[in-house]
Amino acid sequence: MKIIRTKGRGAARTAEILAALERRGGAALDAVLPTVKRIVANVRKHGDRALLRYAVQFDALSDAATLRITQDEMAAAWNAIDPSIQLALRTAAAQIRTFAQWQMPTSWDKSPIEGLTTGQLVRPLDAVGCYVPSGRHPLPSTLLMTAIPAQVAGVARVVVVSPKPAPETLAAAHLLGISEFYRAGGAHAIAALAYGTATIPRVDKIVGPGNLYVTAAKRLVAFDCAIDMLAGPTEALDRHGLVVAASTIEEARMIANRLAPEHLTVDSHSDLDWVQNAGSVFVGRWSAQPLGDYISGPNHTLPTGGMARVRGGLSVNDFVKLITVQEYSAKAARSLGEPAALLAEAEGLTAHAEAIRARFTRRPRG
Question: For this structure, is 263 an active site residue?
Fold first, then answer.
């Protein structure tokens, strides 16, 4: 593996490499965007006809009848897997569910002044689509990581899409009681979830990791359907792997935060004080990253491409919305009304000011 140094003759080149790594998220998506645009546009316009054509072409779907996976198929997959895998799935699901329950925000109200109550309501989204990659490796863990927080949040309709789902993935869906599961993947599955087809009604939000085509499609539909993040596949060592030899511990910490890694391993709990940008942090020699991938409880759907600068991993918070509430008494309206009206007038919004004053100013009759 390449070793670069922040001091000495190679310092200038190291600075260039680190700057490129900070921008690592966007360039790869741009390369596949023309193809993705065409696929998404076709599914949006032609619905099932385009979706099924792409599913046959890319997902090896045999016919339209096999697009939706039945609950009997999921139950059969559960019954067919080894009991030790059943236990492992149950254990992981329990860990993930408990962590999501701890994360769940709450509704509340408070009174900043007498007569005024402000607060928030926590409400679940109506429908979400969970993308579960497949291919060389089955990923039942991703189904658990995306669907369980949605269930904890109270989402009524949880839809799963996955190209060529493995028996273990179908078994995980049975364990969670998933009722909508479709054999579809890639950009065409994202388009179907975002815009809806006769077979797959649209959802409010799409979550889950995927390859470049999936991630580019999520970016493309994000103005029409909410997404969690641009969570690509785990950043591979063969493309970005290197060793940075920093001159000081402080510089090493600064570089780690600059690169905003998907995963960050630190030596001790005290290191958490300097961590600003990371998808998930693993503390100490016993905290192997694969434990977080499967069994710890925190989500393994994490921001890649430096997106950890602005958000953390998938969580129950991605499946709820916060609705703010305010309730005034007459006394509180009089107390805060005039300052609010003055601010409205300062912005040139005189009707806003009048709407406030009308509530506590007596007007002569007639």
Answer: yes
